[in-house]
Predict the structure.
Amino acid sequence: MLASLSEKEILYFFYDAEKKNANDVFRLNLRQTSLTEVPKGISKYTRLVELNLMKNKIPELSQELFLLQELRILNLRQIGINEVPEEFDQLTNLSELRLEKNKLVHLPKEFATLSNLRFLYLSNNKLEDLPANIGDMKSLQILEADDNRISAIPSSIGQNSALKTLNLAKNQIVELPESLFDVSALLDLNLERNKIQTLSPKIKNLKNLKALSLAGNQLSQVPNELVKLKDLELLILSQNQLSVLPNKIKKLKQLKTLILTDNQFSDKEKERILKALPNTDVRF
């Protein structure tokens, strides 16, 4: 349905919506319009599929918002909220949700019942965790929760079989759950600037992975199984404690860029890596 809606259907001020028949209002872009609350009366727009409230100052979400059950896209980026109401589970048709740059510390367990959600953006909050039942979000394809305070990835992540992009950079993760390596659909995995000390040999199960970043962790070695990632194009391992790479690193035939700066490689090991990967842009 969204693809069939043209730019003509986007309204940029709430008073413009009020001039129309409620059934003719599909998209509201109220970005940065000095709002201090969700506009009163918005619930009458029962066919609304997209609502953008980003960059306003709306510290609390009214109950009217959760009556918009046809919503597919909801943008609440940088509005100043510090909690997500349990009633979010009423927005069962949501496909994309943006909550970046707020003050969120926790998400309610009810949040994970949004089974149609495909794109979830949680970057730049104060999140200490993700819902333990996040695996219930079966349609989730992109999860970005970088720049938070997350210390652990829920083991249920292994049930997110549709997940293609996972960005948990700049958190406080020490250990990766084994279930993470069951998410074989992953294409892009970013775990930069955490506190990860080991990488499981099960990394080989992420056979579709194209980009992997583990920069800024505490790795002293990477498993030999890493070379099983035949489709890998970008590998970032800078700012760790590595001194060697797997003997068969040459098997990464599709690798275009390998970043190894700020590690402990000897000149001899650097030479070996360069020789093994003549078609790769290797940076020490």
About this structure: The two ends are 48 Å apart (CA to CA).
